[in-house]
Amino acid sequence: MPSLRKIVFDRTGYNLGKCQSCLFCDKVSIPGMDISLSTLVQMVLFNDDEVLTTHILWSDGVLEIASGLCCNGFDLSEVILALRQEARARGLSTQA
Q: Would you give per-residue pLDDT tens digits along the chain (96 residues)?
């Protein structure tokens, strides 16, 4: 099975290894966020499958604000959608 980093890269074209960990994306906090967006990125980089069971993946509010948030040009909403897709493929979600 490919790593989460590769899955995200294949589905979005984003190499999250180029994240500069500036924490700019952590300035956002809304209901539904059980982890920060920077933690989500780090979990992908460390191939931590637990990221696929986080509530943040299924929060439409988070998805809405994640687009255009990264100052390094990553569309974090695309990353979230790629992870949602992977969670569904692995049967880890009860979401539609």
A: 899 999 999 999 999 999 988 888 888 788 778 999 999 999 999 999 999 999 999 998 888 888 888 888 899 999 999 999 999 999 987 554
Locate the domains of the chain by residue range: 4-19+26-89
Question: 24-38 b/e with 16+ CB inside 10 Å = b?
Answer: ebeeeeeeebeebbb
